[in-house]
Amino acid sequence: MSIKKIVLAATLASIAAGSAWSQTTLRIFTGGQQRPDVMRKIADEYEKRTPGVKIAVEVGGATSDAQQQYLNTVLTSKDSALDVVLIDVIRPAQWAAAGWAEPLDAYLGADRQKVLSQYMKAYVDANVINGKVISLPYFADAQFLYYRKDLLEKYKRPVPKTWDDVMETAQIIMQGEKNQNLRGFETAGAPIEGTVCTYLVPLWGEGSDITKNGKLNLDTPEARAPFQLMGRLKQSGVLSPNVGEIVTDRIRVNMQAGNLIFAQTWGYVWNRSQNDADSQVKGKIGVAVLPSSKTGKGATCIGGWQLAVSAFSKNKAEAAKFVRYLSSPEVSKMQAIAASHLPVFPSVYKDKDVIAANPWFEFAGPIVETAKARPVTPRYQEVSDAIRSNMNAYLSGTKTTDVALADIKKRLSPVFNK
Amino acid sequence: MKPSKDLSERALGWLLLSPVALLLAIVVIYPVGQLIYSSFFTIRLTEPWLGTPFVGLENYLKAWEDERFWGALMNTLLFIVVTVPGSLAVGLGLAMLANMPFKRKWPVRLALLLPWALPLVFAGLIFRWFFDNKLGFFNDILVRIGIEPQPWLTDPVLAKIAICFTIIWKSSSFMALVLLAGLQAIPKSLYEAAEVDGASKWLQFKEITIPMLMPAIFVALIFRTITAIQTFDIPYAMTGGGPGEATETLAMYIHKTTLDFLDFGYGSALAAIMFIVSIIATSGYLKYTQRSAGRD
Predict the structure, then answer these.
(1) For the purposes of burial, counting CB atoms within 10 Å of the CB of A69, is it exposed (0-12), middle (13-18) or buried (19 or more)?
(2) Residue A397 has what DSSP assignment?
(3) The CATH number of domain A3-141+304-369 is 1.10.8.60
(4) Which of A192, A245, A389 has the CB atom closest to B154's CB atom?
(5) A228 near A401, Cβ under 8 Å?
(6) E strands in A289-362
(7) Would you say residue B6 lies in a domain?
(8) Are the Cβ atoms of A73 and B151 closer than 8 angstroms?
(9) Do the Cβ atoms of A244 and B154 come within 8 Å?
(10) Per-residue confidence of chain A (418 residues) as pLDDT tens digits?
């Protein structure tokens, strides 16, 4: 080895060492409801394994809407402050259109197919827009039918399969219990994102959908069914008269206080209702697939959170590596145990440790796999607004089925029928 | 002595004003100009492939035909018409109360200041709970006196009443502060002279207090009207615009169009319309202040 070579090797080594010393700080944005504490633990683990990379966790608004409003201002000004952003499952199409997400195809390289094939299909569909990988899933979610196991047993009623069963069982139990605070069923009704699912789940349960071959499909009798169903539930007293002010977390609070027999809500409620100190229903809750009409098959709204690399990040390569770590079966398992976050990998549902921590994951897995996506369009926010505000008006009794449906159609036709 | 008006003095005046003028140009004139400029374009971030073509008055025509815009405008006008006089009346009452000769003045002043110091959105959230159908304070009172609990925030009429009530509660203290300052500037001797002449309390209020308070009332009204046009936080926190869009204000619709729908062209046109509404609504007051300035 000549002196020259040794000098060269030493120089290269010192450059390598130097680059290891130079710090890259990645800033990841997450919502307050997506367990930033668990994200911090995962980030600590990543920092240990990846010298030279520090992770800063920025925590934003409590609701998906509030987070996106903040992100809209950051991203329209092309701010490079955020490297990785946790986004709601309804957003990748909008992010792709606006050019806010760095497509991850190049960073996945030859692994692309292999990586995508590990996920549940619904999540591949949600994150791949026009053939490009816009984001990778972090954790899954879906709406379930929560029910009071103890009350169903007491009145010898089976877990309801149809909406008629829900109504009948709820009425029997409400009459029997004579508890003024006990309501039969609750779902989101305030003008918020969750209320979109209040409309879509019964619509899907009828075997129909908002669009058919990309065109608006609301001139069907099925499109009226969700209104009629909610109207019947409200009239019979099963649904609370104040459903128009019910937001997502209020359902959990009411369920946990023992004031509900059935509820249509998201996965996080199970963990809270079993672990919170003030829960009145520990060990008394069951979770099942949401009911359908007499003819249809039960359907549910897909939820969950995705990881996108900001198109304005200055550390895209490092950010993409971090995203791949966060979207791995290993991290999925950590989240499942620490936060009851539903995995996006079918394999993790079968993990012994995961099932030990969340016995209900065994049957939650198949439900998540059949979950349907809300309409995929860059103008989703307008779609959501049309449905939620008309559903809210109907539930509050200010619009009839005809008026609410006509107003939805009027607002959605410029989005879909162009 | 007449103030001298030679050219150099005038130039100095301009020179001294120029930093402020520049600052105003940057923070007021430029954004307003940019807003009006972008209202003539299609700027939809959700559909960047449309480009940003010049569309002339299309955004304004769209507003003309947009029922939701008219609904939001009407709600905003309703909130102005109800809450501006409402908070003036309540504020005047509070100011008169606070102007009474209390031994300790600070607890009264503090009580006056508190609602004003509270952020708007907090007031909205607090009253959302007060008006809550099941857990609310107001329904608790109704039930205690044997009346059915009311769906305060999910009935279009009741929701408007609840929001007006909250806005008046929140904004009266600001009115009261301005009016209190005005009240204290009225010389006691006027009332003493009126007493001597045998004028009743009501006559004193009508003939001394109100006319002497007029400048303060107008200042308070201008500020209150401008904030009423921009009503956003309280309905946003209390109803989110619901039921349906029954309590959506113009500011909320602009926020929704730009920050949720990412339609900056149309949002700019709506904001420009709100700017025009503000100018119309406040021009009456401005005329008055000019007239009174001319009288001096």
Answers:
(1) middle
(2) T
(3) no
(4) A245
(5) yes
(6) 302-309
(7) no
(8) no
(9) yes
(10) 466 666 666 666 555 554 545 789 999 999 988 999 999 999 999 999 999 999 999 999 888 888 999 999 999 899 999 999 999 999 999 999 999 999 999 999 999 999 999 999 989 999 999 999 999 999 999 999 999 999 999 999 999 999 999 999 999 999 999 998 999 999 999 999 999 999 999 999 998 999 998 899 999 999 999 999 999 999 999 999 899 999 999 999 999 999 999 999 999 898 889 888 999 999 999 999 999 887 667 889 999 999 999 999 999 999 999 999 999 999 999 999 998 899 999 999 999 999 998 888 988 888 898 899 999 899 999 999 999 999 999 999 999 999 999 999 999 999 997 6
Query: Which ranges of A178-235 does DSSP label H, i.e. alpha helix?
Result: 194-205, 221-235
Nearest CA in chain B to A243: B154
B150: closest CA of chain A, how far (Å): 10
Distances in Å between the alpha carbon of B88 and those of A407, B203, B225, B287?
Answer: 39, 20, 11, 20
Using an 8 Å Cβ cutoff, are B228 and B285 in contact? no
Asked whether A204 and A210 are in contact (CB, 8 A), the reply is: no
Residue B152 lies in a domain: yes
| Contact between B242 and A379 using a beta-carbon 8 Å cutoff | no
Q: Does the distance separating the beta carbons of B244 and A390 come in below 8 Å?
A: yes
A84-88 and A211-212 beta bridge pairing: unpaired
Residue B236 counted as domain residue: yes
CA angle (A280 as vertex; A33, A164 as ends), nearest 5? 85
Q: Transcribe A99-145 into DSSP letters.
A: T-BPP-HHHHGGGHHHHHHHS-HHHHHHHEETTEE--EEEEEEEEEE
d(CA A239, CA A232): 9
d(CA A174, CA A212): 40
Give the DSSP letter of residue B93.
H
> Could you tell me if B59 and B39 are in contact, meaning their C-beta atoms sit under 8 angstroms apart?
yes
Multiple choice CATH, A142-301+376-416, 3.40.50.20, 3.30.365.10, 3.40.190.10, 3.30.1360.70: 3.40.190.10
* Residue-range domain boundaries for chain A: 3-141+304-369, 142-301+376-416
Q: What is the ipTM of this complex?
A: 0.83
CA angle, residues B198, B200, B202, in degrees to nearest 5: 155
Nearest CA in chain A to B153: A245
DSSP state of A396: T
Chain B residues within 8 A of A392 when measuring between CB atoms: 242-244
**Residues of B whose CB is below 8 A from A182:** none
As a whole number of angstroms, the distance between CA A67 and CA A32 comes to 9
Separation of alpha carbons A300 and A203, rounded Å: 10
